[in-house]
Amino acid sequence: MGRWPLPADFTAHADGRLEGAGISCRCALGRSGIVAADEKREGDGASPAGDWKVRRVWYRADRGPAPETGLPVIALRPEDGWCDAPEDPEYNRRVPLPYRARHERMWREDGLYDLVVELGYNDDPPVPGRGSAIFLHVAQEDYTPTEGCVAVSAEDLRAVLKQLGGGSRIRILGG
């Protein structure tokens, strides 16, 4: 790892802006808006309001170089998944595919997970049904709402990653 600035925090606003460390960019949020974290439920399509630690970055090495960041960086593999089955002991965790319980694939063809920042939402320990796989990831070109994540352009995400390090946080604010 190289020299990194002090870890920066970023705020995702309900009006579709992500701001921090001198960066202001467009973002997409959950299709159902922003809800209080204690009201968040698996599959509701809402982004959880709160102040979430950034854990690590996952990236597709076949689609681009590792990002410059002060966070741990892990190359995704085709067999990486994320468990979203509340009844499963691996709920809201990375799992190897094939996997017995409901999950999503991290190795996606649409490019949305070419860069993924894992947020510390509902992970210490996970509460079944409170929501899983809340990430900061690449947005669709038209900024279509997400299933609960925060999404920005790939270019903006690489700029944000340069400012993130251990101790950084992503704040999601409701309107």
Written overview of the protein:
By secondary structure, the protein is mostly beta strands. The chain has a single domain (10-173), classed as L,D-transpeptidase catalytic domain-like. The chain contains 1 helix and 13 strands; from the N terminus they run E-E-E-E-E-E-E-E-E-E-E-E-H-E. It has one helix at 154-161; strands at 10-13, 17-20, 23-26, 34-36, 47-59, 73-75, 80-83, 94-96, 103-105, 115-119, 135-138, 150-152, 169-173. The strands form 2 sheets. Strands 1, 2, 3, 4, 5, 6, 10, 11, 12 and 13 form a 10-stranded mixed beta sheet that branches. It has a 3-stranded antiparallel beta sheet with strand order 8-7-9, with no helix packed on it. A hairpin with a 2-residue loop joins strand 2 (17-20) and strand 3 (23-26). It starts with 9 loop residues before the first strand and ends with a strand.
Question: What's the topology here?
Answer:
Layout: E1 10-13, E2 17-20, E3 23-26, E4 34-36, E5 47-59, E6 73-75, E7 80-83, E8 94-96, E9 103-105, E10 115-119, E11 135-138, E12 150-152, H1 154-161, E13 169-173
Parallel strand pairs: 1-13, 4-5, 5-6, 11-12
Antiparallel strand pairs: 1-2, 2-3, 5-10, 5-13, 7-8, 7-9, 10-11
